[in-house]
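Notebook entry, structure prediction.
Reason for the run: the old model in the group folder had no record of what sequence produced it. Starting over properly, with the input documented here first.
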Amino acid sequence: MVIWFLYAAIFIIALLGIHLSSLVAAPSQLDKVIRAFLVLVVVHIVHAALFRDVLVGFKYVDRGAPFGLLYGPLLFYAYYAAKNNALSLKTVIWHALPFVFGLLAYSCFLMLRQFRMEYDRSYYMILYGLMALSWLVYPIVVVLSDNRAQANSKWIYRYAVVILLILAAFMLPLVITGIVQGRRASSSTSGFVIFFSMFVGVCLAYFYQLHQLLGNKQPASQVFVQKEEPGLLSDHGVADDPVDTAKFQRYYSRIETYLRHERYLDPEFTIGGMIRELRLPKPIVTAFFVEEYHCSVKQGINSLRIQRACELLEKEILEYSMEELAQKCGFNSRASFYRNFNQEKECTPLEYRDNYLFKKRRNA
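New structure, fully documented this time:
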């Protein structure tokens, strides 16, 4: 009875999380990773319920499924996206390779009955061992690479680290005991622990999506409460009727949400792509930047990039070369970075850093 309650709770909360993620106007890569996680959980839980507790005699179909090999990579994707890095197809495929190979082995396991009868224990041992290693190695890599100063609002993947480490601490002893004693790496509580961890994971994902939506609505009301002037957008050819003010406030809120995710730090970012993702007319986006930043869209984006560059340059230890810093802040080349930085700050990046550190030490 308890396991069916877990099945239902996981399924419903995961679906609600997917629904919330579809309401985000301009989803970031982290939002997309979390949505992928929720979709995976829905597939996983339906598969488990069907073959563990509905169809008699098919438990091996659930036990041999390699879904667990995807949770470690998803953690890495979430961490990578939380650092405002663009997830390339190559990165996604590379980390998903263990699951791909596991899926091929799983297909053989299901189709070849003789193989399943003779080597089922070895198959389970290898599969659960790889899952446990994945749940251990990925969290360790993330913890060692984590830089809280750059991702202090991306708390969700840190909770995921804890969940995977707990699962690894539970699974590894089972695998080792199974190898030593020559029996299957499972216990009466292993399924419950895994499904309860999935329940905690989907709850975190759901509340993250809810926080994204509610957190983005409140600033919008605060920002636009004083923007009810009759001719607010008329100078830009967008609107002349003050009745439409609330509608344009929603448009502005959508743009602010998009910029809050800092997609412009990706060197492959384009203004045209931003407008397409926002699904807004270009004059509205232009009006937003003119009113908020007193400049064009391109100048505003470059100004935000320079602002991030200054934050990195002000650190005591400079972690990047100028070429790497340019890429990290969304510029395609060092020359473009230097040109825009000089226009914004009237000095080179290194001169800015030297001046900042000199004043800081003098005032210390």
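Summary: The radius of gyration is 25 Å.
The old model has been moved to the deprecated folder.
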